[in-house]
């Protein structure tokens, strides 16, 4: 039984379906990576898993419990955290307040988590009192990931977390993601920096037109020349 | 039979608080006539209210249109404000040939309007009041006053005519400033008036509109202690809200030398509304005039009875006061002349507007008291 | 082509661009890299007329263009894309492209009323052109979709597509690659090279994907903390210790090495 | 002495009334700006919410008075205020449920919600009048003056009077308290921060586990409280008349905007800017000039513009402010 | 915020004809059926239609600004009022002697004011930053006093001429139809000034700035008696060609014969004819405007405008002159508002500056635009006609409903309170209808696309 089990998801924004029976599973403490062409429905699938999109078919289970009918904020309480691809910070709140909002549902003392985030992304400590809307693109991305980490989720979902971040930060981010996974947190992420991502992935999904095209371990996908050529840029 | 009269007043909009008492005044006259059983061989008269909004000419015209065509009214008490009245008269009532008697539209421009003899009004001319007020102030030994008026044709007309009369007699108007009704704050106006100074403050406004706000501010800041109140300010509210603070202030309102207004007030009280409301009595008179003219012409057709309005309003004839409409109908039936006085001592002059005598009042012992008639 | 002299841009007390001087040679594909917050986008925005510089000068082919408005710069042949996609959300994808060319005769009211024949001809040509661009970007199936409904990467493609609708002299690309599928990014890279070779466009490219930079750009300019840190061809830049320290990091450098050797 | 007289004249006719009016506007603007900041639309119904809340408070006041309750030297209405607020909040929440919630669900553009609020404004406007009528109502009891004009003259021997109404003082004090409380709430409490987060990015707030319904409800309750307090204080200081509250809407919006939409501090500043410019630009400086320059008797009134233009003047000042600070004095939001 | 909008309303291309059909049925019912809700007289139906057509033009003007370019103009009442000044200036007779008495003085004073402003702007641009604040302030103050010194006596002289009936400069006695384009031009000129200064402001800030400008324009019209008699109103503005006066028709034997042949009594016949002519005249204007607006919207020009509305920064980067286009559209929209203002005044036959209140002439127009569906020209026309119809009828339905309610009550204070408050049901009904429309068609009756 996978920790996250989203099976046969069907759904879309209007009348037309974007997802045509897409299945995503993540084991406890493992990293799953979704790759695929632009517009394949990766973000849509993430939203569906998080309950931001009504499904017309399929179900989502977390730790064996069916959560298909829950609202996003109920899923947050169940231990899911999400960094969307766009609009992922509170622009007129300071960096620190952004992180605090990440910890909104926590009732314990979260100051040391903030410290951890600052250690991971030192630039954020420097900019802690600046509004997130005034940050550079890459800095914003770091705030967004930091915010999600604040929840101390059991399942962390990241939609292109490395888009626009510099190589040095990207490397650290991937390191950190591995570290996070080691503590038993499951990770589901979408990546276009696919080669780096698949390198650390336990499980890889190639999504095309809302359906699973290839599913295998990260290494196996990397090794498949067809996949490399068509989806990973050679 | 049932005869319908329209009542087109600004039930919503800036003067909305004045309209109900006016409508009730008009309806009081209709009820009196109906109850007498002597009108047009026992016909009853009912009023149909319509909302003229006071500020929106197009809406007022539509209202009057509907009153005339859909409800089939034979005459109209209204409109309320001069602009809207002109529009509904020229665009609707005149083409349709229906009589309008306005209780409150005081613009001099209405006198010269071509109206096919269909338009009358029971409110007095502003020019005369300016002179009366001048005399009164002079007699109080006051030589300089600050003047504020409500920024409409009534206020402006009254203020201008008063200022001209007062300065002609050697008085000094230190400032002649407008105030808008229904504004949330009058500090600026009060400050300007206070700074200009003067022995008294003349408030040519409405007591349940901006006039109260100005008065309140002037009293509270201690800017003035003597006030002069023209007709729009003299009402029950003045006594109730300011009674003991304005002792010694004075003013005037159009009123017959007799007890016309008092009779009207008593009748209004019996009917359960406040007859002291501004223009409530004038509305009563407007309705009464239409009905008496109908009786005199023995026809409800405006084209016929419009000629009789001046006859019943003016001498010669027996004087008719509020509450005596039944008697008036009897006299008319007997073929006798009447001279309708009503609540506001109606005397239609020129193109059909009230000449008016004035009652001078003073606030003594927290009450409005009549001093004399002019 | 473009010369930036001692440019400063301050936000309150913060010096986002702090005395940068650089030159973009005509006909080159210049890469602009640097850590997050180095001031790259701010520099772009100043050059493109979105921000007034605090001080300094920008010239284009010898002509001073400091402080010109964006639309004036467009008419001088300077185009740019945005790091965070700026589509026209309620218009269709095709309309997003068709609105770009300047000097359309249908853009004056007079012609809209009385010159409809000419407009129809122009429109037909524009339509063809737009469809070609969409084909090239592999999103022609979306031509009638509202641009606001596109996926993140598709919006970036649309950004790029707009620059292909006109004859530009110089194009500034702010992270076209972020969020774009790598296979497609290669195609885009090829297109950039082709536009550069065939039509003589000059490019200035901000990008964090070093593969892309390495394959495309020469020279590469590195910015850090609002200043120019280093400049040179890609391979020297990637060996530069200061650049590795501030930007590339050890992990990636090794990887890139490994790949180039392989 | 004359300098003192000049000073007192300015105090009495400009500073005191403008402060009171400014505080009233500021409280109103605070409500508008809060709704704009968090629910992201211009709420045209706010003026009529004020009227309605005040109407309810008056009814409660009357009930209390007839039951013999009083609040010593303070107006009974203050005692009735909490009940008025509760009732108004209930009504506003019901309105949200019936009307606004749908538009949030379909994510309608702000302009549509603004128009919806115009609809609500019409309905409330009518309801208020049906509830309590169109007449002017005075419901201030308790002490009238802190300092009355004759007392002041007797006390100081100055020729210029100075009067401070008790209601003026109450207004200013209450306004200050409310503003402080609101600031503290928004900046320091968890709920306050979650409201700001919701305002910033609704979707992300959802992802952080913030309950949008709660945020919306709290916002409405605060807005209702602000409206009722503002309306009641205004009614106490001037008088209650339904129509005036609609008229108040314009200067309130002006205040909120000149200060910077969505910014509470801006709302306060805006209220005072509007009030002071209305009163001072149309002030006739003649008297003050005469005090200050002995022997000087000016021909005219030394009035820059007549009072007919006071509203125009305050708007002109507002436009000038916006030209130099396009999102208001305190950097407000813009959609 | 995510961008997905509520989906376009159902019905496709038949939606607009169906909506207009339904509206036509409403007017026909008003003209033919007499019951609690409809009057059953064509006089009323045409009367409502006539102002409804002007409302439609107003809504079109606002839609051009908002729907095309996203400019939030809440100064509608100001531009409308300015347009309304045109019939006074164009078609009223000149007041004898007024121009000689003070006309020149007023003109000179206005020139002084203009020169002051120009000088101030010039100084602002040329002087070093440290000096310019004081220099400009000094120029403005000096200019202001010079202006007042010339202006005040001139105005006094004009206003002294027969104040109760004239007291103003009057017009130039030309046909009133001419005043329509001139009203548009007046409003356009004002829009140019406003646009030059305020168009840099963002949505809601522009809204309040224009609201203020509207108030200022109305305040000027209310208080400058030399211009339009202020609160004293100007009466007797002639009717536009070819509309006759009913009273003349009623005496015209030719018309009487014609009316008789239709079986109409002369009273009804004449009022109907006049209304019909007005309606035709207005329909002609509206038709022309709609034609122009539709062509423009569907041209590359319209596409550019929508692009600017959607994203100004990107549009500027794509070479579109955002400020210039905003100014253009602001002027065009305002000109349409001014045109409608002039039409309204020549319909009323009088100019009543105190009648210009923002509730009626700004908010109600906005309601029309939004209910109709912003960005859609036909929607604006529909919204204008429908909301005006409702606005008028709600005034009648309110008391009717209240009367039904009160009928079941015993006489007493409650009943009389209810009856007195019946007119306020107008607003309640209006509000409920507005809410209902927006509830079931959240993007307006005819959404943009
Ligand atoms: N409006 C602003 N107000 C204050 N600071 C700002 C503003 N815009 C940018 N900054 C700051 O300026 C710096 C440079 O930002 P810029 O966007 O130019 O970075 P960048 O080099 O493009 O980074 P990235 O690679 O992450 O996009 C950042 O530290 C940012 O916080
Ligand atoms: N709000 C929306 N309304 C309608 N259609 C949408 C919406 N958002 C996305 N789509 C469509 O759904 C499809 C999948 O979008 P999605 O954002 O899931 O793609 P993606 O795989 O995340 O792509 P990318 O890598 O570019 O981010 C796209 O074709 C897009 O046009
Ligand atoms: Mg995506
Ligand atoms: Mg950047």
UniProtKB/TrEMBL annotation, chain A:
Pfam families: ABC_tran (PF00005). One of its GO terms (biological process) is L-amino acid transport. GO terms for molecular function: ATP binding; ATP hydrolysis activity; branched-chain amino acid transmembrane transporter activity. Residues 1-234 form the ABC transporter domain. SUPFAM superfamilies: P-loop containing nucleoside triphosphate hydrolases (SSF52540). InterPro entries: AAA+_ATPase (IPR003593), ABC_transporter-like_ATP-bd (IPR003439), BCAA_Transport_ATP-bd_LivF (IPR052156), P-loop_NTPase (IPR027417). Keywords: Amino-acid transport, ATP-binding, Nucleotide-binding, Transport. It comes from the Bacteria. Belongs to the ABC transporter superfamily. PANTHER family: HIGH-AFFINITY BRANCHED-CHAIN AMINO ACID TRANSPORT ATP-BINDING PROTEIN LIVF. This is Amino acid/amide ABC transporter ATP-binding protein 2 (HAAT family). The lineage of its organism: Bacteria, Pseudomonadati, Pseudomonadota, Alphaproteobacteria, Rhodobacterales.
TrEMBL record, chain C:
CDD domains: ABC_Mj1267_LivG_branched. One of its GO terms (cellular component) is plasma membrane. Keywords: ATP-binding, Nucleotide-binding, Transport. One of its GO terms (molecular function) is ATP hydrolysis activity. Residues 2-250 form the ABC transporter domain. PROSITE patterns: ABC_TRANSPORTER_1, ABC_TRANSPORTER_2. PANTHER family: CONSERVED COMPONENT OF ABC TRANSPORTER FOR NATURAL AMINO ACIDS, CONSERVED COMPONENT OF ABC TRANSPORTER FOR NATURAL AMINO ACIDS-RELATED. This is Amino acid/amide ABC transporter ATP-binding protein 1 (HAAT family). It comes from Rhodobacter viridis.
TrEMBL record, chain D:
It is a multi-pass membrane protein. GO terms for cellular component: plasma membrane. The chain crosses the membrane at residues 6-39, 51-71, 77-99, 111-132, 162-186, 215-236, 305-324. InterPro entries: ABC_transp_permease, BCAA_transport_permease. GO terms for biological process: D-alanine transmembrane transport; L-alanine transport; L-isoleucine import across plasma membrane. It comes from the Bacteria. Keywords: Amino-acid transport, Cell inner membrane, Cell membrane, Membrane, Transmembrane, Transmembrane helix, Transport. CDD domains: TM_PBP1_LivH_like. Its main location: membrane. The keyword DNA-binding does not apply. GO terms for molecular function: L-isoleucine transmembrane transporter activity; L-leucine transmembrane transporter activity; L-phenylalanine transmembrane transporter activity; L-valine transmembrane transporter activity. PANTHER family: BRANCHED-CHAIN AMINO ACID TRANSPORT SYSTEM PERMEASE PROTEIN LIVH, HIGH-AFFINITY BRANCHED-CHAIN AMINO ACID TRANSPORT SYSTEM PERMEASE PROTEIN LIVH. This is Amino acid/amide ABC transporter membrane protein 1 (HAAT family). It comes from Rhodobacter viridis.
From TrEMBL, chain E:
Pfam families: BPD_transp_2. It is a multi-pass membrane protein. The keyword Phosphoprotein does not apply. It is found in: Cell membrane. The chain crosses the membrane at residues 20-38, 44-64, 71-90, 102-124, 131-151, 171-193, 272-297, 327-347, 359-378, 425-441. It comes from the Bacteria. The keyword Membrane applies. Keywords: Cell membrane, Membrane, Transmembrane, Transmembrane helix. One of its GO terms (molecular function) is branched-chain amino acid transmembrane transporter activity. One of its GO terms (cellular component) is plasma membrane. This is Amino acid/amide ABC transporter membrane protein 2 (HAAT family).
